[in-house]
Design brief:
single chain; about 375 residues; alpha/beta; two-stranded parallel sheet; 14 helices; disordered C terminus; magnesium; Anthranilate_Pribosyl_Tfrase; Glycosyl_Trfase_fam3_N_dom
């Protein structure tokens, strides 16, 4: 980032009230003040509401994310890693499609670094469900890093990697509305994977998020179901913003063109973490149906993004779906989860790792569902 700016909160809040776009450096300054604890709750709330009301730009969100990384705990995962995550906030109370798609992608041989949190608007976020499945959330950061290579998948619990976000918890809870903070998590994976499949429930933010990835040179798709789901939906079509070679292309994905029969919202409805974890186990044990269709579609898209091949996107997704089906049918996806559970309970090869926050200590800093 550039040299420190001579800024004040009145400067920035006045600009937002006047609906003036901020620069990358200005939003980076604001986020640095927030995550370091120097901003007051009133300043945090004013900034969050002002930016959301004005409407975020790519430059503004880029600055916010850059400052998050400046204050984050990061890990280094070798090779071309993948994240599959949704922003949450769709109020669908669906099963954890992104979590299941991530496990299936890992079963197909891709290294997955999953970033997520506890539930914010649903009954079960990624962290809640993984915990029910037997994955430890309180691992030292060294061990989190090792599992990516050892198992093929690992989970970065957001509250531990971005502890400064705890300073946003009270203002956000008292505001009770979605703000820009709800969309930052998927952009701030501590491993900064080269490929990302991101679901975004907000139609206006999806192209902004795609623009941020384009500026960073990440191969990513940002998508939103036309039913409002923060996934590629199987109830109707989805809008997709595909990022590659520094640009963004938009297209519509119709699951029927990929041979999938339409589902209903009830087909994908989840419950609490215990129930949703049972859905994961059933899927990996071979259960077929509408949940499997949705998982295969999302895992197929993630695998297509990771492959980064040229050609028609629908054909690429179809090829990815075949790999996802094989991951499930061969038992490879189930084996990944079994290895993950076992390995998450073992000590780091490098000894005692760096201290990590308790998974419940910063629970109020949660910002997205999957």
């Amino acid at each position: 980032m550039s040299e420190p700016l001579e800024l004040t909160w009145p400067d920035l809040l006045t600009a937002l009230v006047q609906r003036r776009d901020l620069s990358t450096d200005e939003t980076a300054w604001a986020m640095s003040q927030i995550v370091s604890g120097e901003a007051t709750p009133t300043q945090v709330a004013g900034f969050a509401v002002g930016l959301r009301a004005k409407g975020e730009t790519v430059a503004e969100v880029t600055g916010l994310v850059a400052a998050m990384f400046e204050h984050a705990r990061v890990i280094d995962v070798p090779g071309r890693a993948l994240d599959v995550v949704g922003t949450g906030g769709d109020r669908s109370m669906s099963v954890n499609i992104s979590t299941m798609a991530a496990i299936v992608a890992a079963g197909a041989g891709v290294t997955v670094v999953k970033h997520g949190n506890r539930s914010a608007s649903s009954k079960a976020g990624t962290a809640d469900v993984l915990e029910q499945l037997g994955i430890r959330l309180d691992l030292p950061l060294d061990r989190v890093e090792e599992l990516a290579t050892e198992v093929g998948i690992t989970f970065c619990f957001a509250a531990a990697f971005h502890p400064g976000l705890r300073h946003t918890a009270v203002p956000r809870r008292e505001l009770g509305i979605a703000t820009t903070f709800n969309f930052l998590g998927p952009l701030a994976n501590p491993a900064q994977p080269a490929t990302q499949a991101i679901g975004c429930a907000d139609l206006t933010m999806a192209p902004v998020m795609a623009g941020v990835f384009a500026d960073r040179g990440v191969d990513a798709w940002v998508f939103r179901g036309d039913d409002g789901l923060d996934e590629l939906t199987t109830t109707t079509t989805s809008q997709v913003w595909a990022v590659g070679d520094g640009g963004v292309e938009h297209f519509v994905l119709d699951p029927r063109a990929l041979g999938l029969e339409p589902a209903t919202a009830d087909d994908l409805r989840g419950q609490d973490a215990v129930y949703n974890a049972s859905v994961v186990r059933d899927l990996l044990a071979g259960k077929r149906g509408k949940v499997r269709d949705a998982v295969v579609l999302n895992a197929g898209a993630a695998l297509a993004i990771h492959a980064a091949e040229a050609g028609d996107p629908m054909a690429r997704v179809a090829a990815g779906m075949r790999r996802a089906e094989e991951s499930l049918d061969s038992g490879a996806a189930a084996a990944v989860l079994e290895r993950w559970v076992e390995a998450s309970g073992t000590e780091s090869r490098s000894g005692v790792g760096r201290a990590q926050s308790s998974p419940r200590e910063n629970a109020d800093s949660r910002s997205w569902r999957e």
